[in-house]
Design goal:
The chain has 641 residues and is an alpha+beta fold. 24% of the residues lie in helices and 26% in strands. The strands form six sheets. Strands 10, 11, 13, 14, 15, 16, 17, 18, 19 and 20 form a ten-stranded mixed β-sheet that branches. Helix 2 crosses helix 3.
Length: 641
């Protein structure tokens, strides 16, 4: 079937007077609202369909006043045409407007076009605190509603015109065509079996006979509290902005916002950058980043340095900025010190130091798109922790800039403690060749052994601008990792270092605090405590590890963040594990540092105690126990957590 030809079909309804249209809406309001409700897409939900249906009908009034007879004459060539009672009352025109709006409401929203009014939630009517929906029908009504959900808007419109309006098929085709449906015949063919038409009059589809239920009460309470807090904050801001002088109150002796500040201008002037003498560090009372000389083949590039300082002071939206935890990312407080400026791999890198932070600016060799700015806190640095900085990371390889007092550089794989180190030859500026960083699968873990200032120090990359120094020994007596036994311990715990990666770590110390003979002749296990101290000093991470004999890697027994355990302030630690013997018996094993005089365990069907700082008690598999200890001075102490 095809749509009727425009030359033979009846003319569309003519806009009536506003009073005539209002009378039609008032007289046929339930009928029009039911029509809109059924034509709207079910995906809107029953509550929104009810409110939208009422809104579409209430907005169906024509705009302005117009004489219907004169309008009809204008449309039909000056001769008013005959109209039936419905058209005389304006009903046909109002019905067409409601149908068009319901079809528009089913058009999906896109970013390419502005939404039409019918596609948005209705402004009026609104019901606060209640959800409204028609009365539930039976199984037949439910099946009909589910079937309607499978139709598009034109198909639903054809159904309601036939079932509710009792229009003949030619009339349905005409109204659909006037409503803007592209293919009215397809919509009529989709509209289904007329045998179900009586169900359209069911209360299931009557949006004028409604049931009410409350909305989400907890969510409404949370939104109410949030709105109250926002209103209070807005009132406070308004009061502050109304203070004399504007803004947050009087600025006192501060210069106007547009005034030039001499200190800020000096901080951005490349000529004011501090450059330490190469002969300063051997005679200085300080041996940290402040004694590093300016190095690199671009140290005299004024334009590069100007860009680096400008980006530091006010990074644009395209600049990728990062900062280690606890590091402020603000502009320099005054003229900074230049440490390095030069081409490294595919980038140009500038390293600067302001007494609190080391800042790295990097840009491509050509252009400035994709510039990066990294901040790392370095206050309190010493000769032990100011031995190197990371210049670049490319394809898993790392280049370092070593301190001026470093005289020897070698590469060591911590997973191969017996293997000899590989000597590296840095450039005259102290830039190392690219070395493979720690592998993510922990198949290797490279560290640099830096010799200078009478010591050899071990550092490794933990994803920071400043590499972490590795040490061994009891708290307060940490020493550089040089002994074979210490390297052996590090080879079995180094794969636990990713837990402290990118946390602003300054040093990581490994301390073997106890050794324990295992039950049933299982050999001797070692207990280690690993403490990662950060530059900010408030988020140190502590791990207790259990080294079973013959195991390639340590097992983590306990961990804590922000704890003083295993450090100079609290040089003790206690931890426990469940261990299975070769015969299949499970034990609770525990060990504390030398400060513990006795240990006890309870809970989970386990009870036992031991004098000294080691304990082994039989336990069922998966037992959850409580472990505690008593110190030599009689005080109680718990496990690391």
């Amino acid at each position: 079937m095809t749509a009727p030809d425009t030359a033979t079909r009846p003319m569309p309804p003519v806009p009536p007077d506003v009073e005539q249209a209002e009378a039609a809406i008032v007289e046929h309001y339930p009928r029009l609202v039911r029509l809109a409700y059924l034509a709207l897409p079910p995906a809107l939900g029953r509550n929104r369909r009810v409110l939208t249906a009422h809104s579409l009908v209430q907005r169906a009034l024509p705009r302005g006043r117009r004489d219907s007879a004169a309008a009809a004459a204008a449309v039909r060539g000056g001769v008013p045409g005959q109209r039936d009672g419905a058209e005389d009352s304006g009903y046909a025109y109002v019905r067409l407007r409601v149908l068009r709006a319901a079809l528009e409401a089913g058009i999906p929203l896109t970013f390419r076009a502005l939404p039409r009014r019918a596609q948005l939630p209705p402004v009026l009517p609104q019901v606060w605190g209640l959800r409204l929906f028609p009365r539930s029908g039976g199984a037949e009504e439910l099946a009909l509603d589910q079937w309607l959900a499978t139709l598009d808007g034109a198909g639903r419109a054809a159904c309601v015109l036939r079932a509710l309006e009792r229009l003949s098929e030619p009339e349905v085709l005409r109204v659909l065509d006037e409503a803007g449906v592209p293919d009215p015949a397809a919509a009529v063919a989709e509209s289904g079996d007329p045998a179900n038409d009586a169900l359209f009059a069911s209360p299931e589809f009557d949006p004028c006979v409604l049931q009410a239920r409350p909305t989400d009460l907890l969510r409404r309470r949370r939104l109410g509290r949030a709105a109250l807090a926002a209103g209070a904050a807005l009132a406070v801001c308004g009061a502050l902005l109304a203070l004399p002088g504007g803004g947050w109150g009087s600025d006192g002796a501060a210069a106007p916002l547009y005034a030039r500040n001499a200190a800020a201008e000096q901080a951005l002037d490349p000529a004011k950058l501090v450059r330490a003498s190469p002969a300063l560090w051997p005679t200085s009372s300080r041996t940290d980043f402040s004694t590093w000389p300016a190095r690199g083949d671009r140290a005299g590039d004024t334009e590069l340095l100007r860009r680096a300082l400008a980006v530091w002071a006010r990074p644009g939206p395209s600049v990728v900025t990062s900062a280690t935890p606890g590091t402020p990312a603000g502009p320099p407080m005054g003229p900074a010190q230049l440490l390095f400026a030069g081409a490294v791999d595919q980038a140009v890198v500038v390293l600067m130091y302001d007494g609190l932070r080391v800042v790295r600016y990097a840009e491509p060799r050509t252009g400035t798109a994709g510039a990066a700015l990294d901040f790392a806190r370095t206050d309190g640095a010493s000769a032990e922790t100011a031995t190197a900085l990371v210049l670049s990371r490319v394809d898993g390889n790392v280049r370092y800039l070593t301190a001026p007092w470093v005289t020897g550089t070698a590469l060591r794989d911590l997973l191969k403690p017996a293997a000899p180190v590989v000597a590296l030859k840095p450039s005259p500026d102290g830039v190392t060749p690219p070395v493979a960083g720690p592998a993510g699968s922990c198949t290797s873990w490279n560290a640099l052994a830096l010799t200078g200032d009478g010591a050899t120090r071990l550092i490794t990359d933990l994803g920071e601008l400043t590499p972490a120094r590795l040490t061994s020994g009891a708290p307060g007596a940490e020493r550089d990792v040089t002994e074979a036994a210490e390297l052996g311990d590090w080879s079995r715990i180094v794969c636990l270092l990713p837990a402290v990666r990118s946390h602003g770590v300054r040093t990581v110390n490994a301390w073997t605090y106890a050794k324990q003979p295992l039950p049933e002749g299982g050999g001797t296990a070692a207990w280690l405590c690993t403490r990662a101290e950060t530059w900010q000093g408030a988020a140190d991470r502590v791990q207790a590890q259990f080294l079973a004999p013959g195991a390639p890697m340590a097992a983590q027994a306990a961990r804590s963040e922000g704890s003083a355990a295993c450090g100079p302030r609290e040089p003790r630690v206690l931890a426990g594990v469940l261990w299975k013997s070769r015969a299949g018996q499970w034990y609770v094993l525990a060990a504390g540092s030398a400060q513990f005089a006795s240990l006890s365990v309870s809970g989970g069907g386990v009870s036992g105690s031991a004098n000294g700082n080691r304990l082994a008690v039989k336990a069922p598999a998966g037992a959850q126990v409580d472990l505690s200890g008593k110190l030599t001075d009689g005080t109680k102490a718990g496990v690391l957590r």
